[in-house]
Automatic annotation (TrEMBL):
Record GO biological process: D-alanine biosynthetic process
Identification of the protein by name: Alanine racemase
Record SUPFAM superfamilies: Alanine racemase C-terminal domain-like, PLP-binding barrel
Origin superkingdom: Bacteria
Function, in words: Catalyzes the interconversion of L-alanine and D-alanine. May also act on other amino acids.
Reactions mediated catalytically: L-alanine = D-alanine
EC number per UniProt: 5.1.1.1
Pfam families membership: Ala_racemase_C, Ala_racemase_N
Lineage per the UniProt record: Bacteria, Pseudomonadati, Pseudomonadota, Gammaproteobacteria, Aeromonadales
Any one cellular-component term (Gene Ontology): cytosol
Active-site feature positions: 36, 258
Gene3D superfamilies the record matches: Alanine racemase, Lyase, Ornithine Decarboxylase, Chain A, domain 1
Length: 362
């Protein structure tokens, strides 16, 4: 008997391999490794340090994320994907070699009225069809010429856009239109361009441009809902594991867990595993969601609670307390678990809590 709680074992070697897969897909582009949201749950400082030789740049969503990477010794330029949120952030960004996305008239006006201690590198965000942030293609010309006037901006500026539906292989038309609209708005007017998230890297080679921005694929996860990373030669970077903390005899007709929502149709053995929504394992995971125990898939039975979940090991099970349980990773793709839960693997890895320890295996 030697049980322990949930641990996420992270392979930095797998992450380096996955960045290399992205590079092989887009051999002429530079790579911005996206490490936002704590590197999709994999530990941003450690991941960034492991990629510093292989990436050309990093990207994060929040100023504080970039600040932490710099404070932790990361030296490559860091792109703020939504730019600065206020003037102090802009000033800090200029001093610390953060590249800023500029997506709004508010940001443009702030750049125009703020003298900076060092010139800042700007990526103008064009809204080519996502309709979340960015300048309309018709506005691009005006925005470029206003930025061209600014001594505090590195000239010429760069431009980026983001795809809304590049993960839908059966619907290429929308992405093709985004690519065409972005190209028309930026051609001949900017230094570098960047369009591709992971889905773009894998499915839209004609959009690789100067810089790619792979995120989820670095962690071995595919953006395509009905596939998994290994289909593209990616290696899962995270093995999210726990152990069996109890194995119990269970009679047919007996419920298990809160609300008695699952009742066993047969005499069986129930395994109690040391993971719950307090670790970030989704409470919404329904009965039937697989975990891997001693090489076989075992279904969840009953509700996931904060600290424990229960699985139906079967009447003949020989599994013991302390045996390892794989929640997702090598042999059980996070994408497959996500399909059971009704979400995407991006969310599974990103929503983990601080309780599971991150262990780096190489
Ligand atoms: C998060 C993000 C990415 C990375 O997307 P993935 O689908 O994880 O590859 C790229 N670009 C922007 C602007 C993003 O916000």
């Amino acid at each position: 008997m030697d049980a322990r709680g949930a641990v996420a074992r992270i392979s930095l070697e797998a992450i380096r391999h996955n960045l290399n897969v992205a590079r092989q897909q887009a051999p002429n582009a530079k790579a911005v490794a996206v490490v936002k949201a704590n590197a999709y749950g994999h530990g941003d400082l450690t991941v960034a340090a492991a990629l510093e030789q292989d990436a050309d740049m990093f990207a994060v969503a929040r100023f504080e994320e970039a600040q932490r990477l710099r404070a932790g010794g990361i030296q490559l330029p860091i792109l703020l994907l939504e730019g600065f949120f206020n003037i102090p952030q802009l000033e800090y960004a200029a001093r610390h070699d953060f590249h800023v996305c500029v997506h709004s008239h508010d940001q443009l006006a702030a750049l125009e009225r703020t003298p900076l201690s060092a010139p800042i590198t700007v990526w103008v965000k064009i809204d080519s069809g996502m309709h979340r942030v960015g300048f309309a293609p018709e506005e691009a010309e005006t925005v470029f010429s206003r930025l061209a006037e600014l001594p505090a901006v590195v000239q010429p500026v760069n431009a980026m856009t983001h795809f809304a539906r590049a993960d839908e292989p059966d619907n290429r038309a929308v992405t093709d239109e985004q690519i065409a609209s972005f190209k028309a708005a930026t051609q001949g007017r900017v230094k570098h361009t960047a369009l591709c998230n992971s889905a773009g890297v894998l499915a839209f080679p004609d959009a690789h441009a100067d810089f790619i921005r792979p995120g989820v694929m670095l962690y071995g996860i595919t953006p395509f809902g009905d596939q998994q990373g290994t289909d593209f030669g990616l290696r899962p970077a995270m093995n999210f594991t726990t152990t069996l903390l109890a194995v119990r005899e269970h009679k047919a007709g007996e419920p298990v867990g809160y609300a008695g929502s699952w009742v066993s149709p047969r005499d069986t053995r129930i395994g109690v595993i040391a993971v719950g929504y307090g670790d970030g394992y989704p409470r919404m995971a329904p009965a039937g969601t697989p975990v891997l125990i001693n090489g076989r898939r075992v279904p969840l039975a009953g509700r996931v609670s904060m600290d424990m979940a229960t699985v139906d090991l079967g009447p003949d099970a020989t599994d013991k307390v302390g045996d390892e349980v794989l929640l997702w990773g090598d042999g059980l793709a996070a994408e497959e678990v996500a399909r059971h839960v009704g979400t995407i693997a991006y969310e599974l890895v990103t929503r983990m809590t601080a309780r599971p320890r991150l262990e780096y295996v190489d």
